Amino acid sequence: MDAEYLSPIDQILPRMYFGEILCFPSTNEGLFPILKQGLSKVAVNVPQITSFVLNDDSRPGNIRLNSGRDSIDKILVYREDLVADMPEYEMLRMASFPIFPNSPLFYPHIPEVPWAAPWPVIRAEVTRFRGGFILVVLAHHCVFDGVALSELLDMWAASCRDPLGPPPEVRLERLNRRAILENTPSKQSRSQPSVIFRASDRRRLLPNFISLLQRPFNSILPKPLQPCWPITMYRLPSHKLHSLKTTLNQFASRLGLRFLSTNDVLCALIWSCATMAMSPNFQPWTSSSRCSTGVSVNVRSKLQPRLPGDFLGCAIGIAYIDMARRNLLAAAGGKSLEMLASVAAAIRRGVDGVTNEKMKDIISFVETEGNTSNLQWRPKRLNDFYIASWAHHRIYDADWGPKIGKCEALRVAQMSLMPMCVILPARDNHGLKENQPGDIEVAISLNSSHMERFRKLKLMREFAETIGV
């Protein structure tokens, strides 16, 4: 297994981190050593955890892994912030865990990461406070996607649950990034896919200059400013979302589709309302008549040959959906649910359009490019809104053992692409019947004026409840 190799999908994803915040009710004094030992066991058979992402000197503009150089002591650190004004865990629970940068209650320290290579693949921090603790995990997006991070957390939980057991076994096919190259078109077929945008050299001058400066002066360069757009958390009660899905599916056959999924309906609702919020002075004759969104798609089952469902790498595509702005505004107005159904149908067609053939064209093109640093995975016209889904993460099913317990809430550590929405997995609702779906939660980031408009939209207030506001 080539421990240094990063696939074409890895190369073209944003060279940045994404992160998750996990909330636990445990107050056990021995939880940190258990977490540390558990992560060490996972790293035995998943060496990427202790790797760094480096600039590939043999292929300028590309990146690679350098395995085995990081230590668990640096990857996972402990913080005990028992300060007077910190809320108790039970208070966070009663408020549905309003944990985001502008939260009125609490936001944990986020691990510091460098803004240029070499990048550590994983950074994590444990923050203890009265009645519980929070685990913050950052992962480099060119090494793991959301599904892979969910799998790693599941393995970490299993290792903590059985501290005396052996390291979890990992099949080699779960780590084989070169499998993505199988059955790709010949290298002679190098036409640039429509969703790949080549940035000009001028746009890359400043990042490249900073990267050169960073090497000798890493210790004194300031940390880059974090995005400061406000984030609003929403909870969508399962019965309301189910009712909306049932209503919109009445239009599915008329729109040429067999069904609309929960994800289609939720994305349509969020995108339409975000467009309304971002279009305060829309005039058809003076403003852009079209707008677009990018929706992340798990392609493990779409690629041929199929990747394992628990593949520990990046296997995502992006569906770009373009639509008339007036249709989105009409959908957000709430007067025509058929128009909202048409938006959901566009989402469904976009997701279905991320096929093996299109993914292989992208993979083949990127693989044969000498320098991938100027390639961006988006059409030339930047999408207006981005939606990432963590809905299928199994974080609430994982049992971390008697001294740690189960995660009670998953939150977003940072949102680097804005404006955007992250769909979180459904949380268990107390008192629900077995197999009854829980409420879905979302985190949405817009600039201040747009967010204020978004919160006031009647359609959002009808189907969603704000958390912590």
Automatic annotation (TrEMBL):
Keyword field: Transferase
Entry keyword Transferase: yes
The keyword Acyltransferase is assigned to this record: no
Lineage of source species: Eukaryota, Fungi, Dikarya, Ascomycota, Pezizomycotina
Name of the molecule in the record: Fumigaclavine B O-acetyltransferase easN
Residue ranges of the TM segments: none
InterPro entries in the cross-refs: CAT-like_dom_sf, Plant_Fungal_Acyltransferase
